[in-house]
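Thread title: Can someone regenerate the structure for this chain?

I was given the following input by a collaborator and told the matching structure tokens would be attached. They weren't. Posting the sequence so someone can regenerate them.
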Amino acid sequence: MTMTVAVLAGLHHMLGHPFMRYAFVGGTGVALAAGLVGYFVVLRSQVFVGDALSHVAFTGAMAALVLGVDLRLGLYATTIAVAVGIGALGRRGRADDVVIGSVFAFVLGIGVLFLHLFTTSHSTSNGAAGVRVLFGSIFGLSRGQAVLAAVVGLAIAAAVVVVARPLLFATIDEAVAAARGVPVRWLGLGFLALAGACAAEASQAVGALLLLGLLAAPAGAAVRLTARPTRALALSAAGSVGAMWGGLVLSYAAPRIPPSFAVMALATAFYVVALGVGRGGGGERLRL
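Best answer:
Regenerated them for you:
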């Protein structure tokens, strides 16, 4: 009883800080979207896309800073455009590794150029902006940014749920899906657009460098724990949100631990546990 009271008192104290409330609001939306998108990223063997989009997000943010426009404009415009472009160059809207690798290298080079331009032409007082893009700044979200992150995250999550069944069909057997009238190419492009939007929003919370972990680790764990898509999708979302909440609490309790690291550490721990106990998804075919 005493422990329960102490826990509740600690939560009340933690949530008494506006920056923590904003972090939970924005972080929950981001994590939910990342968990749902990440499941299909893993299932469609497009994890390399997540890695590429993390660098695209960095490049878009640097371009926005150099041009003096809103950071989010550069993030969303660049990641969504490049994601759709990668899909358009692939077969039936599905990203091709060669295309991804080529675009990856080119975009990373542009990002380095914009970083150079930004650091040499802007005041050193803004020098931390690049670091925030790379590693995230979830404790620095304003009320408006947190609400926007939650709204965008929920919109992405809703879109994934709407297209989940036909996208799953197209993922398992795209030839049969196409023969049945499923718009495989447009589904692939639409999914990549959602992945781009998710990458743009998530990079503000966990950073471009750590984005892949939030997309891949909870989803990879879910795939290993169950072969049922509905359960895996829910488990991936729950694992991602759980890692976000746990990471925020851990970082608050131990201020020397950056929140992005704490979130990624818990997401990775979820995957490691799944490696040890998972008997479902790892060795079985999907059961619809």
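Residues 143-172 form the longest helix (30 residues).
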